[in-house]
Amino acid sequence: IALGKTSLILVKLAELTQLTPVFPSQDPLDRADFNAVEYINTLFPTEQSLANIDEVVNKIRLKIRRLDDNIRTVVRGQTNVGQDGRQALEEAQKAIQQLFGKIKDIKDKAEKSEQMVKEITRDIKQLDHAKRHLTTSITTLNHLHMLAGGVDSLEAMTRRRQYGEVANLLQGVVNVLEHFSKYMGIPQIRQLSERVKAAQNELGQQILADFEEAFPSQGTKRPGGPSNVLRDACLVANVLDPRIKQEIIKKFIKQHLSEYLVLFQENQDVAWLDKIDRRYAWIKRQLVDYEEKYGRMFPQEWCMTERIAVEFCHVTRTELAKIMRTRAKEIEVKLLLFAIQRTTNFEGLLAKRFSGCTLTDGTVKKTEVPPPSTNPFLEDETGTETDEIVIEKSDTDRPKKPKVPDNPFHGIVSKCFEPHLYVYIESQDKNLGELIDRFVADFKAQGPPKPNVDEGGAVLPSCADLFVYYKKCMVQCSQLSTGEPMIALTTIFQKYLREYAWKILSGNLPKTTSSSGGLTITSLLKEKEGSEVAKFTFEELCLICSILSTAEYCLATTQQLEEKLKEKVDASLMERINLTGEMDTFSIVISNSIQLLVQDLDAACDPALTAMSKMQWQNVEHVGDQSPYVTSVILHIKQNVPIIRDNLASTRKYFTQFCIKFANSFIPKFINHLFKCKPISMVGAEQSLGLRVSALKAAWVLGIRRWVII
C-alpha cells in the first residue's frame, strides 16, 4: 500500500515538473518517458531498503507542497499582467498620434517656406536667364562681326596674293564659322558660309596656278631659288582642302623627276642593270640640290625630301620591271645580283636618312643583337644580319632568336627583281650540282678521311662545306625575297640533301661480300692472337663510323636549317617548308651504318659458331679451360668493338645502339647453335654450357661495361 501511494505521488510530481523543453534538467522526474515503477525500484533496490519508506514519502510530499506554493505564487503574480499591458499599449498609441501631428505641422511649414523661397528667387532667375541670353547674343554678334570682316579681308587679300596674312586669317575665319553651324538656316549666315567656301576654292585654284607658273611641267627651266609667295602659299594649303596640298606635292615631284624619266628611258644605255648605280647617284644629287634650293619653301612636316625619294623608288621599280621584261634573256646571275646588291644598299641608305613616315607601314624598329657564340660556324650573315644556322649538336633546345625586322624601305625598289629570281635559283641549282659532283670526285681521289680517335671520329669535311654554302644561299635569297623564291630555294636544298645522303654517304659505305668457308677446330686452334678475321678492314670500319657521324651531323643541322628557313620566309608560307623527308633519309643512313657494323661482327663470329655445332661433343671426356670457338668470338669482339667505340665517341648513343643490336642478333644465333650440338655428353654439356658459355658471357658483359663507361 505504501509503495502504491508512493507511485501515485511520484506520477503527480513528474507531471508537475515536466518543463524540460523550457528548463533542461537531469532529474529523472523531469523526463518525458518517466516510469514510476523503475524509479521506485531505483530508490528501494532491496527489501531492507523499505525500512525508510516513510522518510522518502515525506520528502516527496514536502517537494510537492513546495512546487504547489511556487505555482500558486506565479499564477497570482500573472493576474495583473494583462491589465498592465493594455494600459501600456494605449499610452503608446497616444504618443504615436502626437508624433504624427508634429510631423504634419513640420511638413506644412516646409511647404510654406519653399513657396516663399520660390517667390523670392523668381526675379533672380529671370535676371540670370536674361544675362545668359544677353552674353550669348553679344558673343554671337562679335563672332558675326569678325566673320563678316574676316570674309571681306580674306577676299581682298586673296586678290592681292597676300598669302602670309591669309594663312592666319583663314584659319580664324574657319574657326569662327564653326560657331554658326547651328544658324545655317539664317540666310545671312548661309551667305557668309558660301562666301568662305568660294574664297577657299579661289585660293586653292590660285595657289595651284602660281605653282604651275613657277614650276611648269614642260618648257621653261626651273627657277634658281624658292619664292616667299610660294612659301606662304604652302602655309595656306595646310588650311585648305587636303587635296590642294596633295596636288601641289604631286605636281612638284613630277616636275622634279621629269629629267630622270628622260635620262633613263628604256632605250638608253644607262637604263640597263649594269649602270644602275647612275640612277641612285642621280637621285642623291637631286636631293642635295632640293635641300639647297627648296628646303625652306615647303613646311617641314610635309617631308618633301622623303616624298621625292619615295616617288623616285616607285618610278624606278616600274621602269626596271618594264625593261627587265623586255630584255629578260639578257639577265645573268652576276648582273642580277649586282643590281640587287646596289639596290638594297640604296634602300638601306634611305632607311638611315628617312624615318619612313610617308609610307603606309613605315615604322622603324631597333634590331636586337643576340649574345656572341663560340661556335665557329656562327658568323654574321651580313653587316647587320645576325641570324645564322646553329651547328652545335647540343644546342638544339636553345630558344629561338626573334627575326630581325626589315627597314621600312626594304623592297620598295628591289621588289621588281623578284619575278626574275628564277635565274638565281637555277644558278644555285647548277652550282649545288657541281658542288656535289666535286664532293664525289674528291672522295674518290682522296679516299676516306683519316681516323681521328682523339676527337671521337672524323666527320666528312664536305658536309660542313655544303651547309656553309646553304647558309650563304639562304641569307642571300632572304635579302632578295621572303616569298616564293625562298620556297623554290628550299626545294633545291631538299634535292641536294638527298643527293648528298645517297651519293656521298650511302654510296661510299663498304659493300658486304659473301661469307667465307667455315672454320674447323684445327684452323681455330691455329689462329694467332690479333689475326685478321673480320670482313671489314680497320679503314673500312673507320669509314663506316665516319659516315655515321656525318649523317648524324647532317640530321641535326638539317633540322636547324628548317627552323631558319621558316624564320626567313613569310608567315603564310611557313607550312610549305618541311625537311622531314631529308631528315628521314639521314636516319636511314645512320641505321644502315649501324646494321653494317653489326653484320660485320656477326659474320666474323659465324665460323666459330659453326665449328662449335660441328664438334663431336659426345666424345668430349675432359673439361678444359676454354674452347677454341669461345676464344675466337672474344677475339673478334675485342678487335671490332674498341675501334667502333673510339670512332663513335662523339655519338655515344649510336654506339649503345650498336651494342644492343649486336646482342639481339648474336644471342639468339648462339642459342640456336647450342641446340644443334647433338648428341652431347654430360662432360660436353659442362664444357659448353658450364665454363665456355660463362666465359663468353663474362667477357662480353665486362667489355660492354668498360666500353660504355669509357
UniProtKB/TrEMBL annotation:
<protein>
    <submittedName>
        <fullName>VPS53 subunit of GARP complex</fullName>
    </submittedName>
</protein>
<dbReference type="GO" id="GO:0005829">
    <property type="term" value="C:cytosol"/>
</dbReference>
<dbReference type="InterPro" id="IPR007234">
    <property type="entry name" value="Vps53_N"/>
</dbReference>
<feature type="coiled-coil region">
    <location>
        <begin position="89"/>
        <end position="130"/>
    </location>
</feature>
<keyword id="KW-0175">Coiled coil</keyword>
<dbReference type="GO" id="GO:0042147">
    <property type="term" value="P:retrograde transport, endosome to Golgi"/>
</dbReference>
<feature type="region of interest" description="Disordered">
    <location>
        <begin position="365"/>
        <end position="385"/>
    </location>
</feature>
<dbReference type="Pfam" id="PF04100">
    <property type="entry name" value="Vps53_N"/>
</dbReference>
<dbReference type="GO" id="GO:0000938">
    <property type="term" value="C:GARP complex"/>
</dbReference>
<feature type="domain" description="Vps53 N-terminal">
    <location>
        <begin position="33"/>
        <end position="443"/>
    </location>
</feature>
<dbReference type="InterPro" id="IPR039766">
    <property type="entry name" value="Vps53"/>
</dbReference>
